[in-house]
Amino acid sequence: MTPPPARRRRNAANGTAPAHNLPRRGTVRRAQAISTYGVGSLIAVDHESFVVSGLDEADRSWRGDESPVVHERRLARLLDVDCFRLPPASDDTSKDGLRVRRFPLMHSCPECNDLQPHRDFSPPAGRSVCGTCEVDLVPSRFVVACEAGHLDEFPYWQWVHRSTDRDANRIGMCGGRLRMRTTGRTSSLRSIVVSCTCGQVPEVSMEGSFRRNALKDLRLACRGARPWLGTSATDPAGCGLPLRTLQRGSSSVWQPVLKSALSIPPWSSGRADPLAAHWAALRQYDNPEHIKIYLQGAFPSGCPVPLDEVMALLDAEREEDPQDDRAPGLDHRYRALRNKEYERLRSGNDESEQSRDEQFVCETPLGDPGMLQPLGIVGPMLVKKLREVRALKAFTRLVDAESTTDAKEMPLSAQPMRWLPAMEVQGEGVFLRLDESRLDTWEKAPAVAARVERMRTAHQRVLEQRAEDPSQAVESPATPRMVLLHTLAHVLINEWSLEAGYPSASLRERLYAADDMAGVLVYTATSDSAGSLGGLVAQGEPVALDRAVRSAIRRAEWCSSDPLCMEAEAAGSTGTNLAACHACVMLPETSCEHNNILLDRALLVGTPDEPALGFFAHLSGA
Fold first, then answer.
1. How are beta strands 377-396 and 255-262 bridged, if at all?
2. Judging by DSSP bridges, how do beta strands 419-434 and 83-85 pair with one another?
């Protein structure tokens, strides 16, 4: 998606240009600055291309009223930061915005066919045109990246001269100038031809440049370039990993590593926010007197949070510590965070007993939940008010962000920061659980276990292929209850999209699947007109939920791609799905926690040969 074109930027008060005197290139929504155009990503504005600057350089633009502080203690503790910040506002009244740098620097002129760095075209100030031809320059369509997250210019000079010299300054050392032209015969890479006027080498097409070993065969390796931190910034640790050629707009160039948490009591009232920078110090004390002394020193004019509340908050935080003798990793602590959310969603939080500032309201429905027992669903809850904070922890290149490890993640800044970019969503949702006794019996069935094992094996193979050390690969989360809950969430979102008028992209799933959890939360994923208006909560009343589940299961029995879809031995690009395709259960990527993998509607409705596979098979035809 290309952001809207730039508009002339003026100060709302006096009509003057902003103080930083930097030209404005375009606008993006705040949410896009986290999920689509975050730090290190490439962004196209009209005919120009830029990389979003790192937090070190952009620190000044992420301060002040345009980038408000967001607090979510549970998530901040998980990511080891003090707070989060919303991306800078990008409307006409803002004084600053996201900082970007021109990238790639290599451009071509469609008129004279010169291929060289942008500055060598001698463009007029503030414009990206050829100083000779006065036509718009075209940024290089090709870039190179490595799995460690580095990004660099495509080595055109080395590609044409078949040189092993990785020095970027080598361009022009042969006495010639690079040129790029398109033959126009086909739309393939074969029609894009690069040549050098030195006359020492023949012209070469771009065909073959995307082969996995294309640059390795030239003995070119990554030099650790990090253009989002500066035009000449390189990783001090070096790199040396193989380079891969990518199209500038490819999704593999940048994938965000997002972590999220729901605001739940006692943190959801906002009372603990003034203590955000002091929790690490407070956790060192157990004695209330010592805590009181610390607070007196930290807040000379008086602590805004009473001592008894501080003690209660510390107790709640310690309850969320993973119960494990080993040093818990991020994934283990993230599961502990989900466990606490699951407990709170089960127990509820009645609105009549809370203040108006409470951001988590979860109540039992007015109708009789017992009518859902024949479906195998128990404990529906109406989440009338919820707040989710999604933080951009890091990003990856070439590696799926959902299956990455810390070693494959590229941080957002050269130096550690005590805050991270984030966005907050306030909305509503419906929470439901599956009957544990029926679920235990169902998931122990040999046919069910064997079917899920095929998916788990395929997924684990993919994770091991993407890991630098296969023995250290992330473990696949595929289990019978996880795949069942995941597929159920998808068919419910599709059902509510059809029956209740919600765009499917405005709904989102949150799965709670573990040995002691079997629940799913479907909630509004945006805070726009499809957000918190009560329409989704109304779908959680037992009568409406019973009707929706039955209708969703009936729809899942058939797919327009059947029998191929239902009988598929493997589905999806990585073979990690079974009976699942875009015609039946897949959702927009923003609505799914697992990038539309680990789905199988046969676990909902069974197959013609094995109807008992389906947890809801007894509803077929009902």
1. antiparallel
2. parallel
Chain-centre distance for alpha carbon 511: 16
> Which residues, listed in sequence order, are joined to residue 519 by a DSSP beta bridge?
433, 512
Give the pLDDT of residue 240.
Answer: 87
- Taking only the tens place, the pLDDT of each residue in 255-292 is 999 999 999 988 888 888 888 888 888 888 888 888 88
Angle at Cα 590 formed by Cα 584 and Cα 592, nearest 5°? 55
The rounded distance, in Å, linking the Cα atoms of 459 and 470 is 13
Name the residue with tokens 């609105």: 351
Q: Cite the beta strand spans of 268-370 per DSSP E.
A: 361-363
Residue type, 83: C
Q: In what order do the strands lie in the sheet with 192-196?
A: 178-182, 192-196, 204-205
Residue matched to tokens 């947890």: 615
Per-residue pLDDT, 91 = 59
Within 8 A by CB and 6+ apart from 471, the residues are: none
- pLDDT bracket for residue 522 (50, 70, 90): very high
In sign, the C-alpha dihedral spanning 133, 138, 144, 147 is positive
Quote the tokens at residue 607: 């197959």
Total residues found in the chain within this entry: 622
- Examine residue 446 and say whether the peptide bond preceding it is cis (omega within 30 degrees of 0): no
For residue 21, is it left (φ>0), alpha (ψ between -120 and 50) or beta? left
Which pTM value belongs to this model? 0.85
- By DSSP bridging, strand 204-205 and strand 192-196 are antiparallel
- Residue showing tokens 């952001």: 3
Long-range contact set of residues 87-90: C-beta below 8 Å, sequence gap at least 24: 87/30, 87/33, 87/34, 87/62, 87/421, 87/423, 88/33, 88/61, 88/62, 89/30, 90/27, 90/28, 90/29, 90/30
**What is the H or E stretch that residue 360 is in?**
none
Average pLDDT, the chain: 85
From residue 231, alpha-carbon distances to 200, 337, 397 in Å are: 30, 39, 19
